[in-house]
From TrEMBL:
This is dCMP deaminase family protein. It holds the Pfam family dCMP_cyt_deam_1. Its cofactor is Zn(2+). InterPro entries: APOBEC/CMP_deaminase_Zn-bd, CMP_dCMP_dom, Cytidine_deaminase-like, dCMP_deaminase, dCMP_deaminase-rel, Deoxycytidylate_deaminase_dom. Gene3D superfamilies: Cytidine Deaminase, domain 2. Residues 5-132 form the CMP/dCMP-type deaminase domain. It comes from the Bacteria. It comes from Imperialibacter roseus. PANTHER family: DEOXYCYTIDYLATE DEAMINASE (PTHR11086:SF18), DEOXYCYTIDYLATE DEAMINASE-RELATED (PTHR11086). Keywords: Hydrolase, Metal-binding, Zinc.
Length: 160
Protein backbone atom coordinates (compact mmCIF):
# COMPACT_ATOMS: atom_id res chain seq x y z
CA UNK A 1 0.00 0.00 0.00
CA UNK A 2 1.33 3.41 -0.94
CA UNK A 3 1.51 5.88 1.92
CA UNK A 4 -0.04 9.29 1.28
CA UNK A 5 2.15 12.38 1.44
CA UNK A 6 1.75 14.57 4.53
CA UNK A 7 0.72 17.48 2.27
CA UNK A 8 -2.19 15.38 1.00
CA UNK A 9 -3.21 14.26 4.48
CA UNK A 10 -3.17 17.78 5.91
CA UNK A 11 -4.95 19.40 2.96
CA UNK A 12 -7.63 16.70 3.02
CA UNK A 13 -8.10 17.40 6.71
CA UNK A 14 -8.36 21.15 6.02
CA UNK A 15 -11.02 20.53 3.36
CA UNK A 16 -12.97 18.28 5.71
CA UNK A 17 -12.64 20.78 8.57
CA UNK A 18 -14.10 23.48 6.33
CA UNK A 19 -17.33 21.50 6.39
CA UNK A 20 -17.65 22.38 10.10
CA UNK A 21 -17.93 26.09 9.32
CA UNK A 22 -21.14 27.91 10.22
CA UNK A 23 -20.40 30.71 7.76
CA UNK A 24 -23.00 31.41 5.07
CA UNK A 25 -20.54 33.00 2.63
CA UNK A 26 -17.60 30.60 2.50
CA UNK A 27 -16.31 27.48 4.26
CA UNK A 28 -12.57 27.50 4.98
CA UNK A 29 -10.43 25.04 6.94
CA UNK A 30 -6.85 25.22 8.24
CA UNK A 31 -4.33 22.79 9.71
CA UNK A 32 -1.25 24.07 11.53
CA UNK A 33 1.66 21.63 11.56
CA UNK A 34 5.23 21.39 12.71
CA UNK A 35 7.69 18.63 11.87
CA UNK A 36 4.97 16.27 10.54
CA UNK A 37 2.77 16.79 13.62
CA UNK A 38 -0.55 18.62 13.81
CA UNK A 39 -0.40 21.34 16.44
CA UNK A 40 -3.78 22.96 15.79
CA UNK A 41 -6.80 23.04 13.50
CA UNK A 42 -9.36 25.70 12.66
CA UNK A 43 -12.24 26.68 10.46
CA UNK A 44 -13.91 30.02 9.83
CA UNK A 45 -16.86 31.22 11.83
CA UNK A 46 -17.91 33.22 14.85
CA UNK A 47 -16.10 33.01 18.19
CA UNK A 48 -17.11 30.05 20.35
CA UNK A 49 -20.08 30.88 22.54
CA UNK A 50 -21.54 33.52 20.21
CA UNK A 51 -23.97 33.02 17.31
CA UNK A 52 -23.75 30.34 14.64
CA UNK A 53 -24.47 32.37 11.53
CA UNK A 54 -26.15 29.55 9.60
CA UNK A 55 -28.60 29.04 12.49
CA UNK A 56 -29.14 32.66 13.58
CA UNK A 57 -29.24 34.24 10.09
CA UNK A 58 -29.70 31.30 7.66
CA UNK A 59 -30.68 33.41 4.66
CA UNK A 60 -28.15 36.26 4.79
CA UNK A 61 -25.45 35.36 7.29
CA UNK A 62 -24.19 37.56 10.11
CA UNK A 63 -24.52 41.35 10.10
CA UNK A 64 -21.86 43.22 8.09
CA UNK A 65 -19.21 45.50 9.58
CA UNK A 66 -18.49 49.03 8.30
CA UNK A 67 -16.34 47.63 5.47
CA UNK A 68 -18.92 45.07 4.34
CA UNK A 69 -17.23 42.06 5.93
CA UNK A 70 -18.67 39.58 8.40
CA UNK A 71 -19.00 41.21 11.81
CA UNK A 72 -18.47 37.93 13.69
CA UNK A 73 -16.08 35.96 11.51
CA UNK A 74 -12.75 34.65 12.65
CA UNK A 75 -10.82 33.22 9.72
CA UNK A 76 -9.72 29.59 9.73
CA UNK A 77 -6.03 30.56 9.95
CA UNK A 78 -6.74 32.86 12.88
CA UNK A 79 -8.69 30.15 14.69
CA UNK A 80 -5.88 27.61 14.25
CA UNK A 81 -3.18 30.07 15.38
CA UNK A 82 -5.20 31.42 18.32
CA UNK A 83 -6.01 27.94 19.60
CA UNK A 84 -2.37 26.86 19.33
CA UNK A 85 -1.11 29.91 21.20
CA UNK A 86 -3.89 29.69 23.80
CA UNK A 87 -2.67 26.16 24.53
CA UNK A 88 0.97 27.28 24.65
CA UNK A 89 2.08 25.56 21.43
CA UNK A 90 5.01 27.12 19.59
CA UNK A 91 4.07 28.10 16.05
CA UNK A 92 7.43 29.57 15.04
CA UNK A 93 8.66 27.66 11.99
CA UNK A 94 5.30 25.92 11.47
CA UNK A 95 3.47 25.22 8.22
CA UNK A 96 -0.20 26.07 7.75
CA UNK A 97 -2.44 24.31 5.25
CA UNK A 98 -5.51 26.31 4.28
CA UNK A 99 -8.29 25.76 1.77
CA UNK A 100 -8.33 29.44 0.71
CA UNK A 101 -5.19 31.53 0.38
CA UNK A 102 -4.81 33.97 3.29
CA UNK A 103 -6.25 37.45 3.07
CA UNK A 104 -3.85 40.32 3.77
CA UNK A 105 -4.88 40.53 7.42
CA UNK A 106 -4.27 36.80 7.99
CA UNK A 107 -0.98 37.04 6.08
CA UNK A 108 0.24 39.71 8.51
CA UNK A 109 -0.66 37.46 11.45
CA UNK A 110 1.03 34.44 9.85
CA UNK A 111 4.21 36.46 9.27
CA UNK A 112 4.18 38.00 12.76
CA UNK A 113 3.77 34.59 14.42
CA UNK A 114 6.82 33.21 12.59
CA UNK A 115 4.99 30.61 10.52
CA UNK A 116 7.42 29.75 7.74
CA UNK A 117 5.24 28.10 5.09
CA UNK A 118 1.68 28.41 3.77
CA UNK A 119 0.15 25.80 1.48
CA UNK A 120 -3.21 26.85 0.05
CA UNK A 121 -5.78 25.04 -2.08
CA UNK A 122 -7.71 27.87 -3.75
CA UNK A 123 -7.00 31.52 -4.51
CA UNK A 124 -8.57 34.26 -2.35
CA UNK A 125 -8.18 36.66 -5.30
CA UNK A 126 -10.25 34.41 -7.55
CA UNK A 127 -12.89 34.07 -4.82
CA UNK A 128 -13.07 37.85 -4.30
CA UNK A 129 -12.71 38.77 -7.99
CA UNK A 130 -9.58 40.85 -7.44
CA UNK A 131 -6.45 40.86 -9.63
CA UNK A 132 -3.95 39.34 -7.19
CA UNK A 133 -3.60 37.53 -3.89
CA UNK A 134 -2.46 40.38 -1.62
CA UNK A 135 -1.87 37.99 1.28
CA UNK A 136 0.34 35.70 -0.81
CA UNK A 137 2.22 38.69 -2.24
CA UNK A 138 2.83 40.00 1.30
CA UNK A 139 4.05 36.64 2.59
CA UNK A 140 6.45 36.13 -0.29
CA UNK A 141 7.77 39.68 -0.03
CA UNK A 142 8.76 39.05 3.58
CA UNK A 143 10.23 35.57 3.14
CA UNK A 144 7.37 33.25 4.01
CA UNK A 145 7.12 30.38 1.54
CA UNK A 146 3.62 30.38 0.04
CA UNK A 147 2.67 27.68 -2.45
CA UNK A 148 -0.49 26.50 -4.13
CA UNK A 149 -1.31 22.89 -3.28
CA UNK A 150 -0.75 20.66 -6.29
CA UNK A 151 -1.27 17.24 -4.70
CA UNK A 152 -4.08 14.75 -4.95
CA UNK A 153 -7.10 14.79 -2.67
CA UNK A 154 -8.47 11.26 -2.52
CA UNK A 155 -10.28 11.12 0.84
CA UNK A 156 -12.52 14.13 0.49
CA UNK A 157 -16.20 13.38 0.13
CA UNK A 158 -17.00 16.65 -1.61
CA UNK A 159 -15.16 19.86 -2.34
CA UNK A 160 -16.36 23.18 -1.01
Amino acid sequence: MEKPAFDDIYMELAVNLAKRSHCIKRHVGAVLTKETRIISIGYNGPPAGTHNCDLEWPEVGCPRDSKGGCSLAIHAEQNAILYAVKNKATVDGATIYVTLSPCLSCARIIYTMGISKVIYLKSYAEHKGIPNDEGIDFLRKFGVEAVKYEGTLTNVTHMI
